[in-house]
Specification:
119 residues, 4 strands, alpha+beta, two-stranded antiparallel ribbon
Length: 119
């Protein structure tokens, strides 16, 4: 199995370009694959997209216009006058992210894989 990770150069520095949604794995399906091939592994998920990004997807059925809107709590209206409401949204988002990660439901699956030594 190969996973392409295109790399390009920009201003003498390496920039990785990630192709979104090339492969879909749930932790249990990746575990089965690695175990069937005899690999040892550790894995976890992390959550990068905010709760407001998920609400945006549910409502509009499309991605947000700017990348920074994906990872920050960004309601469609400004709360400059009411920082307490923004704090509540931030706390809700932190709880949401933590809950997804604790249940291996995050949007990024990371695995460290190594060859098992023969017994």
């Amino acid at each position: 199995m190969s996973i392409d990770c295109p790399i390009c150069f920009k201003n003498d520095s390496i920039v990785k370009i990630r192709q979104i949604h090339l492969y879909y794995f749930k932790p249990c399906s990746l575990e089965k694959l690695l175990e069937s091939e005899g690999y040892k592994y550790s894995m976890h998920t992390s959550q990068k997209a905010s709760i407001t990004n998920h609400f945006h997807w549910m409502h509009h059925r499309e991605c947000q216009a700017k990348g920074n809107l994906i990872t920050s709590v960004s309601p469609p209206v400004k709360f400059a006058e009411n920082l307490n409401l923004q704090n509540i949204l931030d706390e809700t988002d932190n709880f949401y992210l933590k809950s997804l990660e604790e249940n291996n439901m995050g949007d990024l699956l990371s695995a460290r894989v190594w060859v098992s030594k023969s017994s």
